[in-house]
Amino acid sequence: MGVLHLVSRSPGESLALSQCLGRAGEGDALLLLEGGVYAALKDSACAPCLHESMAGIAVYVLGPDLAARGIAADEVLEGVVRVDYAGFVGLALSHSPIQSWF
Amino acid sequence: MKFAIQINSAPWAGEGCDTAYQFIRAALGLGHEIVRVFFYYEGAYHGMRRMSPPEDELPALRRWSELAAGQGIDLVVCISAAQRRGLLDQTEDGRAVKLEEEVAEGFRIAGLGLWVEACLKADRFLAFGG
Amino acid sequence: MKQFLFVMRRPPHEGIGVRESLDLLMTVAAFDQPVRLLFLDDGVFQLKSGQNPECLGAKPIVPLFSALEVYGIEELWVEEESLAQRGLRPESLILPTRGIKRGEVAGLVASADVVVAC
What we know:
The structure holds three protein chains of three kinds. Chain A is of the alpha/beta class. Chain A has a five-stranded parallel beta sheet with strand order 4-3-2-1-5. Chain A has helices spanning 16-21, 47-53, 63-68, 85-94, and strands at residues 4-7, 29-32, 58-62, 81-83, 98-101. In chain A, strand 1 (4-7), helix 1 and strand 2 form a beta-alpha-beta unit. Chain A contains four helices and five strands, in the order βαβαβαβαβ. By secondary structure, chain B is α/β, with parallel strands linked by helices. In chain B, strand 1, helix 1 (16-29) and strand 2 (33-39) form a beta-alpha-beta unit. The longest helix of chain B is centred in the first third of the chain and has 14 residues, at 16-29. Chain C is of the alpha/beta class. Chain C has one domain: Hypothetical Protein Ychn, Chain: A, CATH 3.40.1260.10. Chain C contains four helices and five strands, in the order βαβαβαβαβ. Chain C has helices at residues 17-30, 62-66, 80-85, 102-110; strands at residues 4-8, 35-39, 75-79, 98-100, 114-117. In chain C, strands 4-3-2-1-5 form a five-stranded parallel beta sheet. The longest helix of chain C is centred in the first third of the chain and has 14 residues, at 17-30. Chain C starts with a strand and ends with a strand. Chain A binds chain B through residues 6, 8-9, 33-35, 62, 64-65, 84-86, 88-89, 92-93, 96-98, 100, 102, and chain B through 1, 3, 8, 14-16, 19, 22-23, 25-27, 29-30, 32, 123-128, 130.
């Protein structure tokens, strides 16, 4: 069972995402939430890095946090899977442990 | 599945408590159990009875009490974190008194042992608000 | 019995967060649960020798780390790349630690039941 990584900070204000990606293992999952959802913008500077990481980990983004920030589905990097809170719970059930990156 | 939840951030500091609340609601809706919600670090500010924000901010505070009342969720504010932040009334000899009078409906104040106990009972541990 | 892993990523002297994290950690140890610490990124500065927080009027945190052994906490893992990127060496640290390479961190995390981000 893979680890679920939770990144809640925007890459513009914190190194949490890059520091997480540097340690995530094959088969782990990453959920971008709160300010972390900005990393999912397909035209952002971290898109290439996030895209590259998807070779080994599954990347998810919390839909309500996208909506709160006015990020439409067509602005999200391809391959990043949008989930709602029920999906978040599902990720927590199918992964262990769960590591928060503040 | 059973979840142990930790909240690290104050009510007005970021989204951590909002995310936690929505996660808990979703988990309960799917039939899962919340063993305990433990408020630590700046999260200790949650549940203090004497908080008096503007009227339109009250629902964000009251929802926790409603969750406790409606779903029987155990909401625990860490006593050491609360004391450190001057959130508890002290007697002249330094002892915190009448703890139940310090917290909002549905909350209780207790020690770190309850956090460990929750982690041991739960299938998953998540922390919100950093 | 559950394996707890405390991940320290923040530098020292930025508030009481570290002290409160150590309180949590020692409570876990008091419950006789196995505990590991993992120092990543700026968290390695927590262990740097020669700190003098008294200059700031602050209490030193180093004695708390030194006391961990008394609680039976002996697994202090320090990521080698985090040290190197900060110009530190294992000899720069206050305690004996176990080095771990970045590529091995995933395995250490995966072996835990409860991961506490500090």
